[in-house]
Amino acid sequence: MECLSRTEPAVTSDGVPQRAGNNLDPWYANYADRAAGFAASEVRALFAVASRPEVVSLAGGMPFVSALPQELITAAFERTMREQGPVALQYGSGQGIPALREHILEVMSLEGIRASVDNVVTSTGSQQALDFVAKLFLDPGDVVLAEAPSYVGAMGVFRSYQASVVHVAMDDDGLIPEALRETIAHLRGQGRRIKFLYTIPNFHNPAGVTLSAARRPEILEICRANEILVLEDNPYGLLHFDEPAPDALRSMDPEGVIYLGSFSKTLAPGFRVGWALAPHAIREKLILAAESAILSPSSFSQLVVSEYLSQADWRGQVDAFRGVYRERKDAMIEALGEYLPQLSWTNPNGGFYVWVTLPDVLDSKQMLPRAVRELVAYTPGTAFFADGRGRHAMRLSFCYPTPDAIRLGIRRLATVVNGELDLLDTFAGTGTLQLPDRPGIELAPPTDLK
Question: Kind and range of the H or E element at 260?
């Protein structure tokens, strides 16, 4: 076929050049421009390695679903098929099943949200709801504001719609209001169009920090004054260890916030059930986006989740998850203090993640192959920045491995880190390296950032 060996750029009927095909992908010339925004996630790329039984994976954010009462899940399946089988196996509404949306209101009420069931749209995980929001709002060249660092899956979505992610500095109390003001002013001065602020205020992925109660109204006021929509992503909000997180941003500004929720972390990701709570006009467009993309979310999954929530002590189960993850987090913090006391890290009050800051001389991405050889995996910090930062940081997940496995993984990681530092000392003759002595988050970009 001619298209397999074409090397000269093709030209459309109106004379517009097209990209050429190549030997690896003869259809390269036919892709839409936005396809260039699709890139392999560094987190997903680790799964093949991390799934090897001999590797302690501190990389993926997989919930510990073995803590679920299997008999209750099985009973929910059986009752759904016995009592609602024809409905469960049929197409449903693009907005989702009303009974489940009622349960979702009950879940969100624990974080101060009062809303109408009419404004809830269910989705195939909150990731799909995130994609629908991006589809509705983002044109090529638009700007999305996001914390530094930010969730890798969200940045992939925004890139796929040819938007630019601009990071805003954060610290141990979350997004910094003054940094948000300065970033907005700088972008507006350049004539750039900001579509929304994407934020994970509770037990942040990957940083583990929580936006303080004092900062929440200020962040919302800044966005209101600048007519910037807020996209609040909150999959971890109920998984606190000590004090609950402050009330959701959506509870303070129903018209200025789209709230994304999910059962992936508080129940199980295999159901792929999430939702968006949106202002009325946006809600209507989200339903249209869902119908055009998938016709309707899975009736079966929604009904099983609804049945489980109706019959099980789901609040008690969430509390059991909190205990499981608290024990694992404590094991990780203790192991870091024992084996890598010279480093710095966050100490989350919930969620799945610890953010570790390395000395400037280390590169977490380049160090990863050696870590895998030592049978431990983590996620390099570069996965969570859109601008090349993160070389001196890594995300460690404590949600899935047992406490003993976590301690073993940190011990192996210490072998890697200390080995790299010893090697650099030997060849650079730098003597003792001065390392950070306070837990925290990398806020400033490297001085050699290009």
Answer: strand 257-262
